[in-house]
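Progress report, Aim 2. The chain analyzed during this reporting quarter is listed below.
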Amino acid sequence: MDQFEFFNDIRSNLGENAVALHQRLWDKYGEPECGNSRATYISKNYVFKLPITDQGIRQNEDECTLLSDDYWQFAKTRLVDAESGLLCMERVEHAPHNIIKQRLGYIPDFVAAIDCSQVGFNRRGLLVAYDFATTC
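Predicted structure tokens for the chain:
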């Protein structure tokens, strides 16, 4: 990824403060993984999702409002900074269907409802969704 181009795109979408925060996270955690609306910086135990567009800000706000229940299981999240939309999420190890079935003996129903089956196991061994923002 071209860092200069990446920061210029963020600057045009969200401004100079967003670029400064992305630069700090890039320096600390390395080059992010990027989707259409957010960059993801990964540490040993946490994932930091930082918007690169206005849609990313809304997605982070949405993810912070969801709570696990008897059906849905979500990774723990918190909004670190409302102004920038920086979200911190527990790190989850992606699990394909065969691994889920091997570990649990079945595939929980909620897995099919998560876009691209973006689910995995957290440090406590719980199967949770780790990317559950609406993209529509």
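The longest helix spans residues 16-29. The longest strand covers residues 46-51. These observations will guide the mutagenesis work planned for the next reporting period.
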